[in-house]
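Q: C-alpha cells for this one, please.
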Amino acid sequence: LVCRSAVASTQMWGESGTYGTWSLFAGSPSGEAGTPGQHRFNWPVSLAVDPKSGKVVVGNIGIESDPASDVRVTKGYKFPRPVYLVEVPILTQTNLSADDAYCDASGQGVAISKTGVTYVSDTQANRVLVQRWKWGTLSTLWSVIAAPEAGPNACGLALSEKTGLLYIADFNGGKIWKESHDGTLEVLLTLPEGSNPQDVAVDKLDNVYIADYCGNAVWKFDCTSHSLQKIGDNSTDFGDGSVGFALPISVAVYKRTG
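A: Here is the predicted structure, written as C-alpha cells:
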C-alpha cells in the first residue's frame, strides 16, 4: 500500500498480487469530499495494516489550508472502501505551511502490534500516542524526556516482530530511538551529520532500515554487529534507467525475503 504525499494527496494505492498492477485502494480521485463510501484523505503520509483485522490505519497530516491532523481507518474488499475518522483528541494541531508540514506536522508515523495496539506519532509534541484497547481512547505513551536528552521528534514508527518493542525515527535529532523492556526510551543510533530520518523499518532479525530524507540515503543497522551501512544514496544505479534516492520518506521490509 502506498500513501501519495503530494498537493492532491487524496488517494491510496495498492498492488494487486498476481499481475503487479496498481489500483486505487481508498480515497476520492476528485480530491473533493467524495461520496459517503469514498471519503477523501487530505495529506496521507503514513499507514499500517492491523494484522488481526486487516484494517488500514492512516496518519493524515494537516497543513495551513486544512490544519487538522488526524487518523483515519479504511477496510473492505470492494472499491470504494469507506474511510472512518478515529478520534485522537490529544493529537497536537498546528498551522503549518505545506513545506513545513511534510516533516513537522503530527501523524507522521503509525504502527500496529500483533495484538492490535495502535501507536501514532505526535510529531509536534515530541511524543508518541498509544491506543491500548480496541475501543479505548488514545493516551500519551511518552512525553518529552528531560534527561539525558530531549525526546524524539517522532516521525516514522516500527515494531519489532521478535519483541514487540517500538522504534522511532527522530527527524530533527538525526537519531533512531528504541523502547526498552521497562518501557523507557533509549537512543539506538545516531546518523551522520546532515541526516534526518523520516521513517524506520525492522526486519524479522531486528535489523533496522532507515529512510534518511535530507541525507538522500537509505541506511541499514545490523543488530548483531551494531554496524551502520549505507545501502543506497543519490548515486545508486537501479539498473532501469533511474539513478539515486531523492528525499526518501518511507521504507518497508518484505517479510518473506527481507
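A few notes: Confidence is low (pLDDT under 50) at residues 4-10, 142-148. The first strand starts at residue 2 and ends at 3.
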